[in-house]
Structures are given as C-alpha cells and as structure tokens.
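Problem 12. The chain below contains 240 residues. Write out its predicted structure in token notation.
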Amino acid sequence: MIIKNQFSPNYSKKQRKKKNIRFIIIHYTGMQSKIVSIKRLLSLKHKVSCHFLIDRKGEILRMVKENRVAWHAGKSKWKNFNNLNKNSIGIELVNKGHQLGYEKFTNYQINALIKLCLKLKKKYKIENSNILGHSDIAPMRKQDPGEKFPWKRLKRKKLGIWYNSLKVNSREINNKKITKLFFRNLYKIGYRYFHLNKRSKKDIYIIKAFQRRFLQSRVTGLIDKKTYIISHLLANKNKI
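Solution.
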C-alpha cells in the first residue's frame, strides 16, 4: 500500500498517545474535485483537515500524522465520547456529495480504504463499533459518507458493524412501542443527540442517519418495522 504525503497545516500541535486513538471516521469531501478538496484541506482560512484522503483512483494521501489531532469531525458524539477529533482518525473519500452530484464510490477507493482501515484497526486496536461515518457522530448536520457507501462490504472484511438477519417473530413487535424501543436501541448502539424519553421534530435527522447506514434504499426518516428490526438486531448483537 503506497501512501503519499501532502501535509496540512490544520492540526493540533500537541501529540496524542496511541491509546487515545479509538475511532475511525469516514467522510466524503463534498466538493467538485480532488484538486478543490485538497486546496480546502490545506487552507489556513478554512481550518479543516483529515489524516488521509483517498481519491477515486484509490490513491492515498496522508495529510496529518496519526499522532496529531486533525480537524475533521467537528461537534460530535458517540457513546460516551464528545468532540471526537481528539480520539479519531479521519479519512476523506473524494466524492461530490449530496449537494454537487453524489456519486457511487469506486472500487479503487473502497479497496484502498479497506486496506488502510485494516491496518489502522490492528495498529490501534479499534473496535468494529467505533468505525463510523460522519453522519453517525454528527447526524444533525452531516450526511456523509451517505447511502451509497458500502458498509456491508466493509463488514465482510471485518470492519464496522452490520446485521445478520431480518427474521423476526412479528408477534413480538407492538407498533405503539416501536418508537421508544427504536431510540433505546440506537442509544445502545452508540448514537446520541436525542432524548430517550421525549421525542423531538429533530429526531428525523437521527432516523435518517441510521437508515443511510443500515437501510440505504429507504432513507425516509420514518420508523417502520424494518428500520426497527435492524436497530434491534444491532443493539442485541444480531440476536432475536
């Protein structure tokens, strides 16, 4: 695996300990091209960066050293962690994103990403439940890497989480309880930015973030039975 260097000035100067690196966060660039994306990530004005960028040909660019904090996650939460920059490695995939013409990720990109993530997972002993998308940790404001990102393919390489089956006894599901149970499941999985016992109009962003990852053909923001069942399987480690 060949990794080229083009270092960004946008990072926290204090070194971090290896044990503090607990997450891999996957993004898309959401910009018109690789050139424009790199320009932004190098810009002192914009103050954003990542550890690695992977272009559509599968070429990997290191932009911040792993022992430094890159500025990629922003305001974010997962499990008991807040503001995940300090505990994560950020990987950007070149893709125009939802605003400019969202593209399917290339095989070259995903193959390179898998090799890189396997290396990082082993090096930092990162749990599968901590390999995440930007929308998982910042669902109120982010959609990336989006519903075209192949999470199931990553799981086949033992990266991230996925569910094993959709078989469930329908008698166990009470429609009146689905919403409450769904958010309990999401909390167990690691999602935040919602109240366990009080619903909000903003909950739709959480539901869509979950669907973008686990029910990509149905990003409706509605908790139907299939959405609930998937949350149940994930929260209970695929057991019914």
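Discussion. The first strand starts at residue 3 and ends at 5. Students who got a different answer should revisit the alignment rule from Section 12.3.
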